Amino acid sequence: MRSTLVNRLVPAALCAVVLALPTAGLGVDYLPEPEQAAWAERLAEAHEAIDEANRRVEKARAAYTEARHERHPRGAALKEIETEFRDAQRDAAEAQREFDALLERARPAGVLPEVLRPYL
């Protein structure tokens, strides 16, 4: 029981410290409320893009798995399914990179930790 409690508390404490460190003593000014809301919306949209891309990957993976399992379709139709699967994976990776870059820009820009916390 004790190790489970430690396993839960230590990461939470480290996360709190990491959120506090970048602005502690550096004189970072936080953005005004309207700009905080704009950042929150941008982060939410970017996160939703990741979710949509991952759903597309799962749908393409299911189609690819079924096509390989059933051995139908073949030829050009199978190539189209394979291409969709690869494109979906590439788009999901790109959405994740864009979100990570946005998140990295948010903290130095003065976005409050409360806005960032759901995505960390």
User: Helix share of residues?
Assistant: over 70%
Count of separate DSSP helical elements: 4
N-to-C terminal Cα separation, in Å?
26 Å
Q: Can you tell me the residue ranges where pLDDT is under 50 for at least 5 consecutive residues?
A: none
Helix-strand pattern: HHHH
Share of β-strand residues: under 5%
Q: Can you count the beta strands?
A: 0
Residue-averaged pLDDT, rounded? 85
- In angstroms, what is the radius of gyration? 21 Å
| Global shape | rod-shaped
Structural class: mainly alpha
- Biggest sheet architecture: none
What would your notes on this structure say?
It is a single chain. With 120 residues, the protein is mainly alpha-helical. Helices cover 79% and strands 0% of the residues. The chain contains four helices and no strands. The radius of gyration is 21 Å and the shape is rod-shaped. The protein starts with a helix and ends with a helix. 7% of the residues are buried.
Summarize the structure.
The protein is an all-alpha fold.
Helix-strand layout with pairing:
Blueprint: H1 2-20, H2 33-70, H3 76-109, H4 113-116
Top keywords for this entry?
single chain, 120 residues, mainly alpha, 4 helices
